[in-house]
Amino acid sequence: MLPPSRRDFVSLTLSESGSYTDSKQWHRQSCWRKWKQLSRLQRSLILFTLMLLLVCGIATSPTLIGHWRGEIRLEAVREAFRHAWKGYKNFAWGHDELKPISKSHGEWFGLGLTLIDALDTMWILGLKEEFAEAREWVARALSFDKNVDVNLFESTIRILGGLLSTYHLTGDSLFLEKAKDIGSRLMPAFNTASKIPYSDVNIGKGTAHPPQWTSDSTVAEVTSIQLEFRELSRLTGDPKYKLAVMEVMKQVHKLDGKQDGLVPMFINTNNGLFTHQGIYTLGARADSYYEYLLKQWIQGGKTENELLDDYLLAVEGVKKNLLKKSTPSGLTFVGELSHGYFSPKMDHLVCFLPGTLALGAHFGLPADHMELAKQLMETCYQMYAQMETGLSPEIAHFNMHEGSTQDVEVKIADRHNLLRPETVESLFYMYRFTKDKKYQQWGWEILQNFNKYTRVPTGGYTSINNVRDPANPNPRDKMESFFLGETLKYFYLLFSNDPNLISLDKYIFNTEAHPLPIWPQSE
Ligand code: DMJ
């Protein structure tokens, strides 16, 4: 028997009352009837099309895409951290640095530097298990009662800074106790004729000394320990820490030998005067002097005018003496001045500057600081993008002569990349303040290149010798503690769209990316 033929039309029957409600009900019934009259194939096709439209709609919604992209990137950073941590845990647990290629460790101070530097990163990334096991090590195994020479600056920014910020984020008094311990053990460094601290302290013996070959300290080192010691005074109620580091700032403020607010690189611990004068850079040995002028001013509630004045003067000094444009692309870069001669040399370290300038502009400093920040950010990105591996060299030289075809040149000795954070750090500030997604995109490219050229399959990431040779970047077999303390933390904060995740109105990052609170106005 043949099935009854389907009807191609639906008969219309008006209800007697003809009211609007009735007609709606009729319409609904009529649709339902139509639906039931369709074949199974027709129904499936319609359902499939509707589903497809729904999926396409969701997938092309900019808000949702943005959200998913953000989540994927955040997870990529967490994954990178776990991978780095796996190497550290398996081959270097409790030691200063992982050597991921030889699956061993390197020691600098013998104080678990990578572990301490990474504590607040784990907290911010939400890596609870990893954090718990690291905390356990701090509680049970970390002792500063050791006959060991440590560098005052490095142990302040990485260890004291790391412990203080972890205390603030977690409220766990273990970290405050450890911070007090290392802080007081570092104080002998300030027992000098000039009150300018020595570079090295024996934290077990309580003695301090300059490096073997000189009685000089580095200017950036003695002027970039203030955020941490000032905070230690606030937390302990003991002013001695703050007084010691502010004395250094007072002296440097008054010293002769600056050029338009720019400082030389060395200072003598006997007489407190600048030495090796005539060389001015925003790179190694001077960099964080400028960063900490601004950051101390912000930390202390924007009332310490000498700090602000010195910072503003220095930015003008940079503009007047160190800023130039490259050829062919006209990138703005910060070079160096050596006894009156300009050198188009820019350390990767200088790439902290766009972020610092942007931070100042956020706190009311001239708007042209932000304009300069944007230009320099582009330059720092190009230092990555123009390399064959997409990773920046340690030092770039910019071309300035007509006819050159490439902006960035790299000397053979400068081709290494140490997994440094400065560009990612600045990208984070620039994204927070402008919300321009290109900064996240640039960071994403850089993270992928770190994964491509520096990731070691058995765990960890390694510094490399040659950013110009993708076929053989030539691993150095060292993962610096700042890769976990700074680089990965700044990647995570860059990819996060939550401005309250370590709000820049509440926290100030020390030069090792450890967030410390901005003091309440009442203090
Ligand atoms: C870090 O220890 C700090 O960021 C310091 O200010 C400069 N050098 C490294 C990272 O490059």
What does it look like?
Its EC number is 3.2.1.-. Its main location: endoplasmic reticulum. The chain is built from 17 helices and 18 strands. The N terminus is likely disordered. It is mainly alpha-helical and 523 residues long. The strands form 7 sheets. A 3-stranded antiparallel β-sheet has the order 3-4-5. It has a 3-stranded antiparallel β-sheet with strand order 6-7-8. It has a 3-stranded antiparallel β-sheet with strand order 9-12-13, with no helix packed on it. 1-deoxymannojirimycin (DMJ) binds next to helix 17. The site of 1-deoxymannojirimycin has 8 residues, from helix 17.
Can you give the mean pLDDT? 94
Give the class from helix and strand content and strand pairing: mainly alpha
Largest sheet: 3 strands, antiparallel
Bound molecules: 1-deoxymannojirimycin
Lateral strand order in the biggest sheet: 3-4-5
Radius of gyration: 29 Å
**Into which percent range does the helicity of residues fall?**
40-55%
Distance between the termini: 95 Å
Beta-strand content bin: 5-15%
Shape: globular
Subcellular location: Endoplasmic reticulum membrane
Keywords: Calcium, Disulfide bond, Endoplasmic reticulum, Glycosidase, Hydrolase, Membrane, Metal-binding, Signal-anchor, Transmembrane, Transmembrane helix
EC number: 3.2.1.-
Active site: 154 (proton donor), 287, 394 (proton donor), 422
Brief characterization of the structure:
It contains 17 helices and 18 strands. It has helices at residues 20-37, 40-60, 62-91, 113-125, 128-141, 152-170, 173-186, 219-222, 226-236, 240-254, 287-299, 305-321, 353-362, 367-385, 422-434, 437-453, 481-495, and strands spanning 97-99, 104-106, 149-151, 200-202, 207-209, 216-218, 266-268, 274-275, 279-280, 323-325, 332-334, 336-338, 341-343, 345-347, 395-398, 408-409, 507-509, 515-517.
